[in-house]
Amino acid sequence: MNLNFHESWKPYLEAELSQDYFKQLIDFVSSEYEKGNCYPPKEAIFNAFNYCHFNDVKVVIIGQDPYHGEGQANGLCFSVADGIKHPPSLINIFKEIESDLGIPYPESGNLERWAKQGVLLLNATLTVRALEAGSHQKKGWETFTDAVIKTISDNKKDVVFLLWGGFAKKKAKLIDAKKHIILNSGHPSPLSANRGYWFGNTHFSQVNQRLAHLGLKGLKW
């Protein structure tokens, strides 16, 4: 399998890529893709790193698992390919942006536009078997993506980490809170959002306020 991610990440992740667990992970993923349908498409597995280069990372959003329905996953957490129906969590993300910033609900659920502005949209597990949620968990992806989070924490400063839901909040232990900003919230899934744990978190305006404080341009959410 071709590890096609942007050159800017390679100096920081080289040691991780040469570890035995990572080689075994890639062997597993390659065999899974050969056996049948897996998502996202093979060439999109590392899209989070291709659309958001290391030096550009301003914000990190952590998801858990890629969408497992046909045509949905595009290698960015919470994002779907153009023309695909928006999943419930993404609908709630866009609703919160609408109420927080007054930005109209968008037609496309493709979040490449965020990634290109410096938002790393990182799933903890980067691949999944079709229609089998969590099927590639605990195979090594979490070790790799934890290393990515820690690498960003260690080598950058003033990054805003958005931790949505219990799973993402556990990643706080990898982040140096003295150097970075951590914003916590419930998950945007209907189960959490309908209980009042998501709507009104104002994370999107808070990110832009933080970037402005640093003299940086706000994001076009």
From TrEMBL:
SUPFAM superfamilies (alphabetical): Uracil-DNA glycosylase-like
UniProt entry keywords in alphabetical sequence: Cytoplasm, DNA damage, DNA repair, Glycosidase, Hydrolase
Residue span, Uracil-DNA glycosylase-like domain: 50-211
Signal peptide: none
Membrane-spanning intervals of the chain: none
UniProt cross-references to CDD domains, sorted A to Z: UDG-F1-like
SMART domains: UDG, UreE_C
Principal place of residence: cytoplasm
Active-site residues (renumbered): D65
Annotated catalysed reactions: Hydrolyzes single-stranded DNA or mismatched double-stranded DNA and polynucleotides, releasing free uracil
One of the record's GO molecular function terms: uracil DNA N-glycosylase activity
Family: Belongs to the uracil-DNA glycosylase (UDG) superfamily. UNG family.
Designated name of the protein: Uracil-DNA glycosylase
Lineage of origin: Bacteria, Pseudomonadati, Bacteroidota, Flavobacteriia, Flavobacteriales
Name of the gene encoding the protein in the UniProt record: ung
